[in-house]
Design a protein that fits this description.
Helix content: 55-70%
Structural class: mainly alpha
Number of strands: 4
Length: about 375
């Protein structure tokens, strides 16, 4: 009787989501956002030396929203190799959806004491436009925050990726689309407030939006959204989906030769990236108290790419650090020398491209390598 020998192949176990140090750092970040910051702001009196002013809470909340956009850019640019110069559009769309809900929450407390938003009364509108139909529902608003940027990203991405538009041409098209949308939203007849946009928000879910408690809730939600997005993208990019995205970035033609169609992977990454920007915009608007077409400006979209580049593409943690570092420098420099900020931003992007292509994350890795003890000489040889 012939015996059959069955050989088994042991597949490598999937890599851990985070190292032990990574989990410790993440836990510390959550504790700072959910415990330390609320304690310093709400529990300590304003005259206490450790009291954290509400200005800094709002500023940190804005930085968390910016970091969420940087994560979205890292997914599509760092892991997939597709440079978008129009992600400010999806950020603004999420912000406008939330802004429409906040405008409806004003009710009759506006300047004209009308159930219509003040800008509509000023323009002699008698009824709400059709696209404002669901703006008084918070549940519908949450759905539309995802649906509107996601649908536009899906339509644009499907035709762009199916047509094999790549490289600088794709970047120019995204920039042109965002600029066209900005010009559209500037028009008063579109029903989005024109040049002034939406402002003077008063309530959210019936609660006053300007109280310290609500400000803290919005900050904590932004921080937790950032942590959740980071963990989700880290899991996704370390799975098969992420490996395919890396293959698209490095050698798309070889991937097609192996039998993979890049279209669904690129489209999925593009839509997910747009969704993250939409969520960031929705969290951003109630914290800053305004949304207008300037959020769709070309400069804003370029800044998102700069955050990812400065932090280090393809690392996830790097773009978060880049968003905080660049915007922290911007907040300081726009107070000290506002006329020089754009020059500094451009010089920073050029310097990072030439001298630090791996960004902050790459610099940290090199420093860690230098601190490691050298071997007995064999490894160096």
């Amino acid at each position: 009787m012939n015996s059959t020998v069955v050989s088994t192949v042991t597949l490598p176990s999937p890599p851990a989501l985070l190292s032990r140090g990574g989990w410790v750092g993440l836990a510390l970040a959550v504790l700072v956002a959910c415990v330390l910051v609320p304690t310093l702001n709400l529990a300590l009196p304003s005259d206490h030396p450790l009291h954290l002013d509400g200005y800094w809470v709002s500023l940190l909340g804005k930085f968390c929203c910016y970091a969420l956009c940087a994560l979205a850019m890292d997914l599509i640019w760092g892991f997939t190799g597709i440079l978008s110069l129009g992600h400010g559009l999806y950020f603004a769309l999420g912000g406008y959806v939330m802004g429409m809900y906040l405008m409806r929450q004003i009710g009759t407390d506006g300047q004209y004491r009308s159930s219509l938003p003040d800008f509509m009364v000023f323009l002699d509108w008698k009824t709400l436009p059709w696209h404002w139909t669901l703006s008084d529902s918070f549940i519908a608003t949450l759905v539309l925050i995802l649906l509107v940027p996601g649908a536009i990203a899906f339509v644009f991405g499907f035709f762009a990726f199916r047509s094999r538009i790549q490289g600088v041409y794709f970047s120019i098209i995204t920039q042109a689309m965002t600029y066209a949308a900005m010009l559209l939203f500037f028009r008063n007849e579109t029903g989005f407030g024109g040049n002034n946009g939406f402002t003077d928000f008063k309530r959210i879910l019936g609660l006053t939006i300007t109280t310290p408690g609500m400000r803290m809730v919005l900050f904590v939600m932004s921080a937790l959204a950032l942590v959740g997005a980071y963990l989700g993208l880290r899991w996704l990019t370390r799975a098969k989906f992420g490996r395919v995205l890396g293959a698209i970035r490095d050698a798309e033609s070889r991937l097609m030769f192996c039998g993979y169609s890049p279209l669904p992977y690129k489209l999925a990454a593009w839509v997910l990236s747009a969704l993250l920007c939409g969520v960031a915009g929705a969290l951003y608007v109630p914290q800053v108290g305004i949304i207008n077409p300037s959020e769709m400006s070309v400069a804003n979209s370029i800044e998102i790419a700069i955050w990812a580049a400065v932090g280090g593409r393809g690392t996830l943690a790097g773009p978060i650090a880049g968003a905080f570092a660049v915007n922290g420098a911007k907040s300081w420099l726009t107070q000290v020398a506002p006329e020089f900020w754009l020059y500094v931003l451009g010089a920073l992007f050029v310097a990072v491209t030439l001298f630090m292509p791996d960004g902050i994350a790459g610099l940290v890795q090199r420093l860690r390598h230098l601190r490691r003890p050298r071997g007995d000489g064999k490894e160096a040889a």
